Amino acid sequence: MAALKHSKQRDAILAFLMTRKDHPTADVVYSGLREEYPNISLGTVYRNLTLLTDLGQIQRLRLSDGVDHFDADTSQHYHFLCTKCGCVIDLEMETIDRINQLAGAGFDGQIAGNVTYFYGLCPACKKENK
Prior knowledge:
Layout (H helix, E strand, L loop, with lengths): L7 H11 L7 H8 L8 H13 L4 E4 L5 E4 L6 E5 L5 E4 L6 H7 L12 E4 L2 H7 L1
Parallel strand pairs: 3-5
Antiparallel strand pairs: 1-2, 3-4
Helix pairs in contact: 1-2, 1-3, 2-3
């Protein structure tokens, strides 16, 4: 594989994601970078988000809202999606590594990992519903 050419825009996308805990979409990343990089295109943002995902530097979250969200935290952790407002929140909890063994117990293939999302009402929407 050829050496990856350095890109200020890719660095800016990664730096932007590292400041965020709200798991932004490509459109939000694009909007957030337009002031500093007025000539950046949405296509450039999408290509670099895909490249950063492929390189393992960020996570792509494919949620039920049909829009990809991105997370600079690549550690094993779980996400919560609010079914009312759509916010995505990192859950502070131990990983459930044993789930791979449980799933593999009755499966003849080989399980390499899992993606687990939790759904419901975020604290703000829960409070609003009362």
